[in-house]
Amino acid sequence: MVLFLIGLAHSATGKIIYVDADATGANNGTSWAYAYKYLQDALADANSAEKPVEIRVARGMYRPDRSSTEPNGTGDREATFQLINGVTIKGGYAGAPDPNLRNIELYETILSGDLANDDIEGLEPSELLNHPSRRENSYHIFYHPKGLNLDVTAILDGFTITCGNANIYDWPHRCGGGMFNDYYSSPTVTNCTFSGNSAYYGGGMYNYSYSSPKVNNCAFSGNSAYYRGGGMVNDNSSPTVTNCTFTANSANYGGGMCNNYSRPTVTNCTFTANSASDGGGMRNWYYSRPSVTNCTFTANSANYGGGMCNYIYSNPKVNNCTFSGNSAVCGGGMYNYRYSSPNVNNCTFTANSSKYYGGGIYNLIRTYRSPTVTNCILWADVPSEIYGGTTTVRYSDVQGGWPGEGNIDKDPCFVKPGYWDANGVWIDGDYHLLPDSLCIDAGMDAGVYTDIEGNVRPFDYPGVDNNGELPEFDMGAYEMLPWVKVPMKFTPQALNCNSKGKWVKAHFVLPAEFTVGDVDANSPAKIEPLGIESDYMNVFINEDGLVEVEAAFERAAFCDAAGCGSIEMTVVGLLTNGQYFYGTDTIEIIKNSLECLAVLSSRWLEMNCGKPDWCNGFDADQDTTVNLKDFAIIALHWLEVRD
Asked: Quick check: pTM over 0.70?
């Protein structure tokens, strides 16, 4: 999520209005020195001005019941901010002494519904709605009522929206503690954080009746709802939600997001540690058909559908998503009920858990649903991957097996599976595929032509025989990318295992187009065919201005795993985009003569030696057979003393 922004130049056209709670000038909004102190005054000015208008707001806290005429606030819980068509409101400006600097993380601009400034910090999301310290809070930080008809030109950019509390059941004050978009209100909300808001419906945001805002690069965290949608509710609405995070929100139904008669487009979003009775991450209810693409559902929990719950004619299309570490009573990853038939393509379900059935996917028997699962991986979910026999599964890797065309039951070989640590915290994994995965090129054309990272599908992985047919799709959320071959050298070139020393190092030099940030230095490099991993990696710019990678392997582990003589070895590293880079070099291994003789004897007359290890180096003359010639070549090294 992009949160770092810099703004230095004034808009080429339109009026600019300035707001700074600490301004000491004339407070007429014409400059930073003369900025309005209250956002409500700037909104009133913008409402009457010729459009377009931009309002720039300096860091600080602004409450909806305060203005120049009510500097101490009215305490009116119905006080709210309202966006305006043709008006862009931008937070995150520094204020004095350099007011045009803009960084929304460093210069936080807060719109708060805590009218009495008495909210207790550290409350659990479930405590927010009825806590005594929040009884005087604004019902909504933003309320856009019927008839306002906001469109995409009403823009909110770079604010923290917090402490809204829609806690009475009268309409509209039961909905949308952070923002309530009512009847055809579809603003643009970008680079904003919705946190600590509460409501009966839609703690963070409630979109009602054809309200379809564009919500980009926003975070919904620690919001709660008594009924639906701790983070967001979409009720007969179809917003576009892109690059957003939903974290630790809670509700009875749909901890992160709840959709009702809605078709939102949800792309590149993460749902993490949300909780609910139904649908910890997302609940789709009554004829909802969201498009959910390139999203992750991680460590969410619920009674039904830890990651996602689909209920009553709800048929989401779920592409390139990962469901990992979610938990539920039934349906750890996904729960489908009563005529709900999601279409799930190129997704990865792993390490989800259910108390009873369907650790990966649960389909309630006798409720007329027929989900389809294509090109997916379902592995290490407990107690079972899929429950409910009407699921159509094709070209998928299902642990324990599942009937269907092209299905397999093989370890998918993830780069790094996720796990629960000793403190019960989910540590997510890396679900790229290792090169020996049988999921590579094992899928079919399901109409999904990019993967979760935006890489083009399909990529025909080198070395996989497709019998002359067109390239195949990989199973799971990640398409295997081409490896990048780069120059690599070992130091030392000749290793005497009886001498002193700590490391064997592999030095890579990457092509000119690579930067230091392109290398995943936190993932160890690996030596083939030895299978050992580097202890550490250094990534730096060398004297030629190129990226150099130094991977250090413990000398003792290297000597224990390697044979004797000259051995060609391939070292493989990982790039941050999921690709691998690799290099090949030959290193000469010198060991104690008796040790080499013992191993050589065990491999005597072994045949079919070949690249890359030539029978672990004992086929010294590389004629494909370990024999007397190889003994003579290796014996020469026993007389040498090298480092």
From this structure: yes
